[in-house]
């Protein structure tokens, strides 16, 4: 409590929704913030799930936004959201006015004007973190620690004009330089910022991690602590593998590849500002804060001890397979495909190719059935491939490790356990990144593929059945 000694280093500390789900968790968070004077800047998510099957406040806000868009004015939407904040606020005896203000802000959301429905959705969602940051600042104050809520508008967190998938604009970092970190704790809401036109925009889901990373870079932090509900980042998702090995240290780029391919514990885009600022990240458990957690650092600070650091799997992909003889001789084939993707506003993730074959892998979240249909028709008409197959049932497995570069035969060791268990591999991609191998499998095989590869590289592991 208080500031009996001067703070030395500056740490940005982000707490995920699971760490702020109710008053009991918020109490732990207050203690964590108070336990280290260097924890100067706090980033909050919206209250998350309290138990399996619970609904995150962000999802309640999405329901509220959708109801508003259909003209449904049932007060239950506000009531369901407000009770989450009320329970936390009452646990800390925050002044009535703080809770009344939260309720008023929730009620006024439908009355504001928005340029379009997408911006309305962004503004509703962002209030999960905004209101939680205001409330958390009040909880800290009630607990005897000076704290101030910082509005991302005041801080100059500027985002692109993509209301629900925004990216940070470079000017943000100049704006953040002007922020003075003094005696009081600064509490920032995660997940959102403002466009140059002054409208709220959010990052993609899970984006509070990105805000923490932006602040860590912009405020020149010595460490970015990311508190969640697991003791460490594990070598495989603990929902797939029983008691996976914790990773004590890993590199920025290992984390980037693993979070991209399914390690949801840390948002995949969030690594980038931390790399740009060379700020190490420490993922820790709010419920076990004395454990060391996982440290994510520059390459030069890690000496790999094993070939594989982690194995991730994700089902969020779909693929388009094209076959045409003499594809290798066709000038402009890929260009024509890219033009069609551009026409439909679709980006692709990977494009592995063979002499007569091409597979294009997409993030399925950006595609609806109508777009897929039109895009495939266009490709068929324009390029006339011998085979065109849309594969909706597509998963990517990523096996990642800095240690792979020095080890011969890793591919064989990845493929063998899959072959032994009859799992078909549709694609292997090792080309560009020398620290990862990517495999394409059917969705239904993805979890098993992760398990068997894990078992092979981390022997004696118990497997969940
Ligand atoms: N390799 C992994 N190591 C640790 N956790 C993982 C991994 N892969 C997926 N997870 C999941 O990530 C969850 C934490 O992320 P998230 O739910 O976004 O937390 P928060 O609400 O704290 O932001 C864990 O509970 C775990 O189920
Ligand atoms: N609350 C937002 C943003 C976020 O980052 O949340 P969390 O830290 O709980 O993953 C979401 O649910 O997407």
UniProtKB/TrEMBL annotation:
This enzyme's EC code(s): 2.7.2.4
GO MF, any single term: kinase activity
Residues making up the signal peptide according to the UniProt record: none
Domain Aspartate/glutamate/uridylate kinase residues, every copy: 11-285
Record-linked InterPro entries: AceGlu_kinase-like_sf (IPR036393), ACT-like_dom_sf (IPR045865), ACT_Aspartokinase (IPR054352), AKIII_YclM_N (IPR035804), Asp/Glu/Uridylate_kinase (IPR001048), Asp_kin_monofn (IPR005260), Asp_kinase (IPR001341), AsparK_Bifunc_asparK/hSer_DH (IPR042199)
UniProt function note: Catalyzes the phosphorylation of the beta-carboxyl group of aspartic acid with ATP to yield 4-phospho-L-aspartate, which is involved in the branched biosynthetic pathway leading to the biosynthesis of amino acids threonine, isoleucine and methionine.
Family affiliation: Belongs to the aspartokinase family.
Protein name, entry field: Aspartokinase
């Amino acid at each position: 409590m208080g500031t009996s000694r001067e703070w030395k280093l500056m740490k940005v500390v982000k707490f995920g929704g699971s760490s702020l789900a109710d008053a009991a968790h918020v109490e732990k968070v207050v203690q964590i913030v108070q336990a280290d004077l260097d924890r100067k800047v706090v980033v909050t998510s919206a209250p998350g799930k309290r138990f399996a099957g619970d609904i995150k406040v962000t999802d309640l806000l999405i329901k509220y936004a959708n109801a508003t868009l259909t003209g449904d004015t049932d007060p239950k939407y506000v009531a369901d959201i407000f009770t989450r904040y009320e329970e936390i606020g009452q646990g800390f005896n925050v002044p009535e006015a703080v809770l009344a203000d939260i309720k008023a802000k929730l009620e006024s959301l439908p009355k504001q004007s928005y340029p379009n429905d997408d911006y309305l959705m962004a503004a509703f969602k962002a209030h999960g973190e905004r209101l939680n940051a205001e409330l958390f600042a009040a909880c800290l104050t009630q607990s005897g620690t000076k704290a101030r809520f910082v509005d991302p508008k005041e801080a100059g967190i500027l985002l692109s004009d993509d209301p629900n998938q925004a990216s940070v604009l470079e000017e943000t970092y100049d704006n953040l330089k002007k922020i003075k970190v003094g005696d009081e704790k600064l509490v920032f809401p995660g997940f959102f910022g403002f466009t140059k036109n002054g409208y709220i925009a959010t990052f993609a889901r899970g984006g509070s991690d990105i805000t923490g990373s932006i602040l860590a870079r912009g405020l020149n932090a010595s460490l970015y602590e990311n508190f969640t509900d697991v003791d460490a980042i594990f070598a495989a998702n603990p929902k797939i593998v029983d008691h996976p090995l914790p990773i004590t240290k890993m590199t920025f780029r290992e984390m980037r590849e693993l979070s991209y391919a399914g390690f949801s514990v840390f948002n995949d885009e969030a690594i980038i500002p931390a790399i740009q600022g060379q700020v190490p990240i420490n993922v820790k458990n709010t419920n076990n804060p004395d454990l060391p957690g996982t440290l994510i650092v520059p390459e030069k600070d890690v000496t790999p001890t094993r070939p594989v650091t982690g194995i991730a799997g994700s089902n969020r992909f779909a693929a388009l397979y094209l076959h045409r003889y003499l594809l290798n001789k066709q000038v402009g084939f890929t260009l024509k495909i890219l033009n069609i993707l551009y026409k439909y506003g679709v980006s692709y993730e990977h494009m592995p190719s063979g002499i007569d074959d091409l597979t294009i892998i997409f993030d399925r979240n950006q595609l609806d059935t109508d777009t897929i249909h039109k895009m495939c028709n266009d490709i068929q008409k324009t390029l006339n491939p011998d085979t065109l197959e849309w594969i909706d049932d597509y998963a990517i497995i990523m096996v990642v490790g800095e240690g792979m570069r020095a080890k011969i035969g890793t591919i064989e060791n990845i493929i063998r356990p899959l072959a032994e268990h009859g799992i078909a591999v549709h694609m292997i991609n090792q080309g560009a990144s020398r620290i990862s191998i990517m495999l394409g499998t059917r969705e239904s095989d993805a979890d098993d593929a992760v398990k068997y590869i894990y078992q092979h590289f981390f022997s004696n592991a118990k497997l969940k059945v």
